[in-house]
Amino acid sequence: KPPPPPPLRLIKANQKVSGSSTVQTTGRAFGSGSLSGYYECTNAGAGKAPRSASGFHCWDNLNDGLYGNSNSWIGRTDGDKAGVVLPEVRTIVGIQLAR
Predict the structure, then answer these.
(1) What's residue 23's pLDDT?
(2) Would you tell me how many other CB atoms lie within 10 Å of the CB of residue 80?
(3) CA 6 to chain centre
(4) Mind listing the pLDDT tens digit for each residue in 28-79?
(5) Is 4 a member of any domain?
(6) Within its chain, how far is the Cα of 97 from the centroid?
(7) pLDDT tier at 10 (50, 70, 90 boundaries)?
(8) In a domain, 10, yes or no
(9) Is residue 80 a part of any domain in this protein?
(10) How far apart are alpha carbons 55 and 67 in whole angstroms?
(11) In total, how many domains does the chain have?
């Protein structure tokens, strides 16, 4: 059995990390559900990007680089989850949350 991975930790970066990249170009959003209805997401189900969903509050909006309420994610039910999968283990130097 392989040893467990080292624990994750956040550190403060004073400069850009060598080899760093932005999530918009390397990450794939995923989610277990999105709010649906009047202006909300056209495909409120679970999945992983890329997919054809549009509208407000889709989990697809997580890493599109756009700000504002219409580009935010809202879960469909309590317990819904969303995130971004990176293609390899990366050092995360910053996270920006906005609505």
Answers:
(1) 66
(2) 17
(3) 23
(4) 889 998 888 767 788 888 888 777 777 888 888 888 878 888 888 888 889 9
(5) no
(6) 10
(7) low
(8) no
(9) yes
(10) 14
(11) 1
